[in-house]
Amino acid sequence: MACGSSGETNGDAGGDSGVIDARDEPEVCIGNQAAGAGDTWAAMPLINDNSNPDRIVTHVGNDVVSGIYYESPDKGYIVAQEDGLRNTRGGALFKASASAVTSIAFIGTNDSLRHNGSIDFVGIEKSPTGYIAMAYASELVASDDGGATFQLKDNAAAGRFSIEAILAVQVSSSGTTMITNNGVISSSASAPSGTASYEDIWETDRSRPVSQCQDGPRTSLSPTTRYSVYVSPDRALVAYTSAPNQQPTICVSTDGGNSFTARALGVSNVTTAPSGVVFLSKKRGFAWFGSSAVGVAYVKRTADGGATWTNATLPADVATSAIELQAGFVGTDCLHGWIAGFDNTADRAVLLVTTDSGATWTKVAGVAEAVAAVNGSKLYSGFAIDTAHIWLGGSNGVVVHN
Fold it and tell me: Which end is more exposed in the chain, N or C (fewer Cβ atoms within 10 Å of the end residue's Cβ)?
């Protein structure tokens, strides 16, 4: 069912009726998921790379888990980055069942095609033929057999791209949209390959009016994460975070990234770009910010495709806490969304959930305890099929699931 196609309201606060034109909603909605399902959390340890006995790579307890994707409750993929301290030999791409990491599908210690050195992953995305594990623009770790195997392959002709990190890649029947961490959006009429031809359709341009987004998309967060940008499955809706004149802003495009409009969030006590933005549908989405400073975290939500943004209601203790909000992700019913991060005041992981398209948020029980039990701390990634199938990843090689 398309979101809102029944004509019924979805109970949004904030003034909009909750009715969405189904013609604008390509996402399939499964209906309101059962609140409170899957409240028990358990750990899923990573696997160490023992393929070379003389050079064992210890992912367990070390890596930053940067991306998660589940095709079904028992078929998933997890990517990680080295932490730069205890592991300096690259991340890895793992296969996983619902409750366990089962194998290493790609070893990040392999030298890449375009540079000598290990590979760190930013995220993983579904493609028409399999998956793309996002690392560097010049080459892709990809599967063209539905996720059975992964290979390192060129992306465009030699020299077209360098080792800039990929923040987003979306492949559809009409081509590819790729966003890299140097502020550039590139488009190709074909799927990624060594012969694909890309056009840079958007980048930083100080001659543009501020209202049209002078700065291109990028993230300054460490570790590098993907959540500052969003590309819809059909590649039409593109959004990224920015802060022109120290005003937190979401840049929104409805023409595939060929033009953007700057939509200020109306935040008065923060001067840096939002941490992330994601959409539940072409109309509904939310943007967020959090840091190690007390009382500055916020969530904004939109019900009109990013044209306007309003305050979301957060748990009361957020106003008195130093909460880093890192990873935002959504379900498939246009109602549920989550933001994962770390509460510096309480010194524990945190997961917020909305059941009304971002209007109100509550804390999810059991997450902090499950993460702490395996010596984890900050959360940097997440994925949900529904409320009973959620996976979270973070520092110290932590993956937990409900």
Answer: N
Model confidence pLDDT, tens digit, residues 61-109: 889 999 999 999 999 999 999 875 554 567 899 999 999 999 999 988 7
Choose among 345, 213, 362: nearest CA to 299: 362
Report how far apart, in Å, the C-alpha atoms of 324 and of each of 64, 133, 225, 289, 307 are. 16, 25, 13, 7, 26
For residue 270, the enclosing domain spans 22-34+41-47+55-401
Omega prior to 223 cis, within 30 of 0:
yes
Q: Do the beta carbons of residue 180 and residue 204 sit within 8 Å?
A: no
Q: Domains in the chain: how many in total?
A: 1
**Residue 12 domain-assigned?**
no
Read off the pLDDT of residues 27-60 as tens digits, 9 standing for 90 and up.
444 333 444 445 799 999 999 998 888 888 888 8
Cα of 295 vs its chain's centroid, Å: 24
CATH number where 189 lies = 2.130.10.10
Q: What is the mean pLDDT of the chain?
A: 88
Residue 75 placed within a domain:
yes
Number of H helices and E strands in the chain, helices first, is 1, 28
